[in-house]
């Protein structure tokens, strides 16, 4: 990731222009954007559903290109939704990460994928 | 979004540390990460499913906080998946946006949400 | 619904034959089938994402046909998953409905779509 | 599946009564029901996301019970959506299965999970 446009503000600017040029903002309620985000996430998942683990090798070059495009769609809808709801995604990640660190203390969950509420009480 | 950590590299660094401290990388095949991304996108959608449009006002402050956290989860899984597949998300967005501009020419689709393949031929 | 094949056993028989003829059972782990089910559910949702409410009139005949086919796909994957996990879907529905009746008492939630855990305590 | 209530009409009757008693039909637009279906499918998927294949043994008894309940939720929302759109699910499955048999001829696709459009032309 040494590309120049990896700042979320830049992606938001691209997405805003695309939407404004097509007058599609009228369809972009938070509800509709979260539906579209969910649909794109499933289109991404579709590429992996019958694979063993979905590594680059198992995917192959053509599928990897399609996967990249689905990932782009997911990110664009997420950024558009954040824009509608005035959510600062970077701050939201930091906040959620702090909660996750508290819920899943590293020394308790190391190497274990069970969800926090499934841990036996001390 | 005037916060400092809105660069995807920074979010990736946070996510990598969180995963490494818990030795959870062993579960993070691209297939599993895309499942987790889809699940988080649905948890986000759940907040909107019975609402009319899901504006900030309709959501209310408590739900908006939960929504912010689900959005953070979506972004973290997307960034972790990109990391596994060596995908530059900013470049992927630019590439996909260029394809979208060609598929949905602004002067043809303005104000119309039908998918490009549903447009009548000229 | 006055058609003859509305019994889940009949749908299971159709699905089993289709899968066996193609030797696709090898891909049908419960994990993969639940991914496929989720993907089909999203393909169904895609038809509704930019609509207001998605009535038959708003959908139109062509989209309704596509919607019917996505619904069929959802049901087939659900029945195949039930087959793999020895789940009796009819019994599961009765069991879950009994739980739902206890969680959402009719006289408390009438006309209100908030989830049960959001109800204020008595 | 030797239980008595495996006919889709019976499940529909249970679901209709549950909804009517709570006056929840007002929220059940086709759009909202397809969102809810997608959310329930993802809650089902969540149980499998970090597992290898999700067999009964790998799930364990407690998770299997939760999985059965998520499957019930998926089926109930599917049946409610079919009810709203006057879709005969049994007939839809037969129709879709006939299309699938034509798209994926058994002698061409045996043991191969690639999607039909990825098959090389003859």
Record the SSE blueprint.
The structure is a homotetramer of 122-residue chains.
Chain A: H1 8-22, H2 30-46, H3 56-59, H4 61-84, H5 89-103, H6 106-109
Helix pairs in contact in A: 1-4, 2-4
In short:
The structure is a homotetramer of 122-residue chains. With 122 residues, chain A is mainly alpha-helical.
Overview of this protein structure:
Four copies of one chain form a homotetramer. Chain A has 122 residues and is an all-alpha fold. Chain A has a single domain, classed as MazG-like (Helix Hairpins, Orthogonal Bundle), CATH 1.10.287.1080. Chain A is built from six helices and no strands. In chain A, helix 1 (8-22) packs across helix 4 (61-84) and helix 2 (30-46) runs antiparallel to helix 4.
Instruction: Find the count of extended strands of chain A (DSSP E, 2+ residues).
Output: 0
Number of helices of chain A: 6
Helix % of chain A is 55-70%
State Rg of chain A: 18 Å
Domain module tally of chain A: 1
Order of secondary-structure elements of chain A = HHHHHH
Report the CATH C-level class of chain A.
Mainly Alpha
Q: Give the low-confidence spans of chain A.
A: none
Going by CATH, the architecture of chain A would be Orthogonal Bundle
Strand content of chain A: under 5%
Major sheet attributes of chain A: none
Largest interchain contact: A-B, 78 and 79 residues
pLDDT averaged over residues of chain A: 92
From the structure provided, what is the oligomeric state, counting identical versus distinct chains? homotetramer
Structural class of the helix and strand makeup of chain A? Answer: mainly alpha
**CATH superfamily (homologous) name of chain A:** MazG-like
- The CATH topology of chain A turns out to be Helix Hairpins
Separation of termini of chain A? 42 Å
